[in-house]
Every structure is written in C-alpha cells, then in structure tokens.
Please model this.
Amino acid sequence: MKPIRVISGRAVPLERSDVDTDQIIPAVWLKRVERTGFGKGLFSSWRDGDRDFVLNRPEYAGANILVAGPNFGTGSSREHAVWALMDYGFEAVVSSRFGDIFRNNATKAGLVPVQVDPAVASALMEAVGRDPSTEVAVDLERLCIEAPAAGIEASFPLDPFTQHRLLEGLDDIGLTLRHSLDIDAYEQGRRGWLPSVPVASPGPPSSSKVTAS
Amino acid sequence: MAASAPLTLAEKVWRDHIVRSAENEPDLLFIDLHLVHEVTSPQAFDGLRLSGRRVRRPELTVATMDHNVPTTSFTEPLEDPVSARQIEVLRANCKEFGIRLFPMGDAQQGIVHIIGPELGLTQPGMTVVCGDSHTSTHGAFGSLAFGIGTSEVEHVLATQTLPQSRPKTMAVEVDGELPSGVTAKDMVLGIIGQTGTGGGIGHVIEYRGSALRSLSMEGRMTVCNMSIEAGARAGMVAPDDKTFSYLEGRQFAPKGKRWEEALEYWRSLVTDDGAVFDKFAQIEAKSLAPHVTWGTNPSQVVRLDDAVPDPDSFAEAPAREAGLRALKYMGLQAGTPMREIKVGTVFIGSCTNARIEDLRAAAAVLEGRRVAPGTRALVVPGSGQVKLQAEKEGLDKVFASAGFEWRNPGCSMCLAMNPDKLSPGERCASTSNRNFEGRQGQGGRTHLVSPVVAAATAVAGRFASPEDLP
Model:
C-alpha cells in the first residue's frame, strides 16, 4: 500500500443518503476474480441511466474526493465497492456517517474515510456544488479536511493505529504476523470442544491459478 | 477492566478471544470459524499467493458456493462463463490451500449462513467471520459473528486473527407476546423501522426480552440476520435451552464429555446484571404487526394495514428526499393502501428466510390454494439439507401444486448475481433482506416481507396476509 500524507484536489457532491454498496458497485460486477478494473462499474446503474448524474458532468471530471450524504457504504460487505471508488480515481470519501464494514474495507485498501459533522458535510457539499473548482485537502497527519476558499476546516477521527498504518503504507497482515508468538500462545489455550473441520490433503498448485495485477 | 465488573454478552465473547491488547491499537482477536464463498475470496487467495503465505488454520475454514450458483440445475454447466470461472477458482483455491469445500451439488451445500448452524459449526461464544455482511445471522447462537471485506478475509486466512476496534454495545429489547400472524421477520423489520439503517452503526446489538426468547432458533437467526440492515455489524442472542437442543447431535457439535464441558461454559454466556449498554431501544411486542417495505432501504417500512407514506410529511430533509426518490423508483403513489399494490413475482428464499421453519410456514398458507394468474413464484430452499427435509415432509408438492417453482439451494433472487433476477419495473414480494435499487435485478422493485405474507401475496396477486385469503 502507498503511504498517504495529504490528498488534495477537487470534490464531487453526491447528494444522496444511505448510498449502499449495491449502488456503489452492482452485484453483476462481483463475478470477477480480479482486484482491478472495477472503476467502470462504479455507480453504473446511476451513471448509465442518467446523463445528469453528477459523475457524468464534465466539470467534475478528474475529481479525487467524493462528498456523500449520511450512511454512506451501508449494506453488503463487498470490498469491490472500495476498489471501484479507488479504480475510478477517488482517494477519500467524505460523509457524516459510514457503514462499519465499508469503513474498515476502505482503510485496509487505502481509501480514506473522512467522517465529519453533518453541518460540515453539508457545507462542503454546497461549496463544491456551487463551485466545482473548489480545492479540497485531506491531511492525514493532522486529521483535518480543508476547503479554504469556502472557509471550511474540520477535523475527522481515525484511530492512531490506522492513521499510522496509512501514513506509512504498512501491510496489515505483516504487522499481525509480528505477533505470531501471541497467536501460538492463544491457540494453546483454546477450548477442546471447538469445531474443527477435517481437511482434505492439500493438492498441488492448481492449473487454473489466477494472478492479481 | 476488573475481572468482577459486570459484562455484556458481547464483551464476554470479545474478552475470551483477545490474542493481544495494546494501548492505541485495536485488539487482535482470534477467529474460531471462517466461512468462505466464491464471491469475496478469490482476490484474498491471490494475495496469499503473491506474498507466499499459507492458510494458518485450514481446519477452521469452511467453504461453499452460494451467491453465484444457478438454482435450476446443478448438473448442467453454468451458462455465464464469468460465473463459471469464479466457481472453478474457489474449487481450485480450496484444493490448493487444503480447505473443506461443500460444492454445488453436494448434499450439504447451501447458503453459507444456513449451513454453518445446520452443520453445528456455529456454537455459542465463538467468533465467526465471513466475507458477507449477513454473517450476523450466526449471532443467534450467542456467537460474535460479523461480515468482513476481502482484505480481512486474506488477513484471517493468513493469521486466523483480525485486528478489531472494540465496538459499542446496544440492547434491543422486545417484551410481551407477539400478536398472532406476526413473525420474526416482522419483528426485525419493525426494529429497523424504528432505529433506521444507521441506528446500529458502530455497535453490536444484543436482542433481549420475552418476545425474543419466545422465538425458535430459526426465528432468532432471521432477526440477527438483519442486524446489518440496522447498521450493526453483529447481532447476538444469549444462548439458552433452545440453543442447546438445536445444537445437540449436529455433525460438528461437541459430543459426550465435551458436550457437558461446553454446556457449562455456554451457560455463562449471558449479560451480567448491572452491565451497561451504550445504547438502548425498546419495542412492545403487542405493537408489532405484519410489515412490508415500500421504499429502497429496509427502514422504509410500514404495516401491511397501512398505506404508502407521504415523504413530504417526514420531518428531516434527507429522509424526505430519500423517500421521494424511493417512491419514484418503486413506481408508487403516496396514500395507496399496501393491500392494493399488485405484485408480479414472489420470492421465498435467502439467508433471512429459507430455513425449514420458513418453508413450513409458507407451505401451510399455500395448502389447497393456487398462485394468482400471471404471478411468477419461486421457492429456493436455503440448503441441500433444508431441501431434503422439505421433500420428506412433502412441502415441495404443496409448493408445486400451488404453482411455485421448487428450486435448488443458493442465494438466488436475493442479489441478482445468478440467473434468478427481476426485469426492469417488475414488482416482487421477497423474503430476503435488502430492497435496495436494483438489488434483485436492474430496475426491479423489491418489497421485503415474511414468508407467510409472501405466500398469501402470491395467492392474492397483491399484498396480503394469510387472514385475508378466502
């Protein structure tokens, strides 16, 4: 994962609440086994069906921050929603409230969830709606979001561990594997009745192997 | 926290799974059971290969095929080559990494959240994860069960642990006696109608109260299943004698002396007197009634007795705008009585309502009746075992003679990833969990209902309860 310090650019106002992950990336896209190429599917039912949909408007082309209504990313656990946003070019999403799983998925993949007060979210939505060229910056070191031209400056929460991980671009699994001895010790004390499913013996590497890009 | 401090059920299960706890870091939790399916796992296995990692505990990992599979035939090759590839990739990954797979056509295959409990894999006090948000279903056994994304799937495969920030706790108490005709589905739709889709965000819900206790294990699973629709990643019910008798004798449940040991521990899994929840919601069981959603998120729900609401009367602007958008998408007029809305398709299935009890309840309504002319109706058992049991009881014949299609197990029309879909504008009464735009097919209009309302609606051709039928 790439280290992230400051994300600056322009923002797209998505004036909808309860944007669930089925809207972010419809299920038909979930049949793919790759991790890339989901940008085309981002909000595809809305983009395909409505010429005036905000992502279809040329003045918002190239924006890298999405500003959405409350309860963004509720619903299905599909991380494909995060991949689609990132593949399209978004680096941060601003909302007054995120679905728990989406929020987790975002920080794992390197998309910054910027959770702000509803009033800040509305002010930002209005500012970038009025002037699509409004410059917005998300500072991960100071945990704040700014749009100086609109007089907006607000902090957002992120736990210190996730902040550190994103700033340094660290691999989550690698960090956990540093604690292998703790995992070993825990496993020794597990209760004897817990279920264990007989394992088929591991086969040779399969021929239909899929490579990630 | 002092050892003697009173704890909630969720806090106890959390405490018993902490591998490592450090200041300013999330707790590292051990995962007892990892369920895997074809859709959210391929990129995780790829990640393992790329970094040269193995699956740490393959025997704590179980896989099945459910989202993508056609429900008409398990023997013919899949028509969609992209789906076929995903199925094949899961098969290959399970083989390569030594994971037990219940594949399409296997007698124990089924929707991942139906087979876990059915096999006795889901037990009280466990941590259960799966790359699927409806993992909350397993909380009905008093386990801490939640959905994860693909990065976390890879994390669990590689380490059998997950770093997690401690969630807040929320109690939802449903007391009193449920009126007749009111099901677990109506209870959870009623709860979501009250809390909204975001009410549970950041929380683990514990469902409590006498009405909740009165539900069967199947009913409790239905309630916990839709915790995520209230925004909560997990929902739990403290285990009791119903839980234990459901589990006893199942394939992977403890046996003999181990069963006794397990029981002793399981009985300790209750919220202590004096434990404090961060949030609290209360619902009188007698205020509940059969529910139907009218909009495009599950909190947009009314009683079957009511009419489509007028969003202009909603107090808050976002709800008003969302309501107006929903009415437009759903093709509905404010003020139309729900019972007057015509329905073209009825779907009985999904991890919310495709267990044997759901099928029995629907079949009891359909006995001796026929689906309204022009109505498409399908029933999709949640697993191979549910299908077999239903056939033993002759339910398949009841459904078939009523005009329902009797299908093979899978997620089917819950999420439009397989051939079972709605066409644009088609209106469906569905026992599934999400009425999002396009959820059952692009342009499809979904109304969430209980299995008995679905069955009665199929007969009437418009929303109805069994009592409405002649």
About this structure: Chain A has eight helices and eight strands.
